[in-house]
Amino acid sequence: MAENNHFIERSLMAVLVLFKESIFSEDCASRKGFLQARDPRVKALMIFVLLLAALFSRSIPFIAGIYGFCLVLALVSSIDILFFWERTLFFIPFFSLFIAAPALFNIFTPGEPLASFHLFGMAVSITKQGAASAGIFFLRVLTSVSLCVLLALTTRHSVLLKVLRVFKVPQIFVMIMGMCYRYIYLFMEIIQDTYTAIKSRCGNISSSARGRKIVAGNIANLWRRSYDMHNQVYSAMISRGYSGEPKVMDEFRAGLKDWLCLGVTLSVFILSLWQNQYLN
């Protein structure tokens, strides 16, 4: 039982650290790489166009090609590929694979059988059409998540918020995103500090009832602290001149390379529409 508790605790702390690192990757945005050097407005448009190309395409090789192009962009942007995979292959893409798995079978997607077997006395087969549907769904999710993570890794948070305002995203939405970004960091620190404090004062929790009592008490304390803090944070921001608009020192200037890159991504999008018409 103790070993299981230690395993759960280690897993929880590892997830917290991974989540924290995946959100706060300002060091990647400060490196000298290909995407870091691009104009943030053009870069955001590039990612958006590639997202549309992946979503509109109905060809597995074409979507896989967009994903490969995303990996190349990550490499030339000085992002370690293993670091990138750790933040894109799990969670949403992993669970989307389980969502798409039922579409493989003839029970849900009739079609040409690729492999047949018996399950609980029933003849079940994996169909060609089901495999294509599941593959497209999974690749779309994987490519979309990878492109969004790539944009976040190569763009500083404050600059990304300013880009959203350039594209007329509502101010309240941008302000909420900025506040959530800072509060997530704060809550991560509180969770880790609370966990360390509990371990140092209580040691191993001997019963589930005591454990529930400790967790409930800390949830109430965290709620009270956050309630008391939000007015203090807002007052501090107002006193420093915050008006709801993200302000950064960077000036956006698009060069020839930026427009050439945008042209390439637009070509990819047009090609995705053309190959859909060709496949039909």
Describe the overall structure:
The protein has about 280 residues and is mainly alpha-helical. It is built from 11 helices and 2 strands, in the order H-H-H-H-H-H-E-E-H-H-H-H-H. The protein has a two-stranded antiparallel sheet. A hairpin with a 2-residue loop joins strand 1 and strand 2. Helix 3 packs antiparallel against helix 7. The protein is flat. The N and C termini lie far apart (about 60 Å). The model has no long low-confidence stretch (mean pLDDT about 75).
Task: Give the SSE layout.
Blueprint: H1 2-23, H2 26-29, H3 40-56, H4 60-76, H5 81-86, H6 92-100, E1 113-119, E2 122-127, H7 128-153, H8 157-166, H9 171-202, H10 208-239, H11 256-279
Antiparallel strand pairs: 1-2
Name its key features.
single chain; 280 residues; mainly alpha; two-stranded antiparallel ribbon; flat
Helicity level: over 70%
Computed CA radius of gyration, to the nearest angstrom:
24 Å
Sketch the topology as an H/E string, one letter per element: HHHHHHEEHHHHH
Q: Output the structural class.
A: mainly alpha
Q: Which percent band covers the strand fraction? A: under 5%
For the biggest sheet, the summary is: 2 strands, antiparallel
Shape: flat
Query: Span between N and C termini?
Result: 58 Å
What does this entry show, briefly?
This protein has helices at 2-23, 26-29, 40-56, 60-76, 81-86, 92-100, 128-153, 157-166, 171-202, 208-239, 256-279; strands at residues 113-119, 122-127. It has 280 residues and is mostly helical.
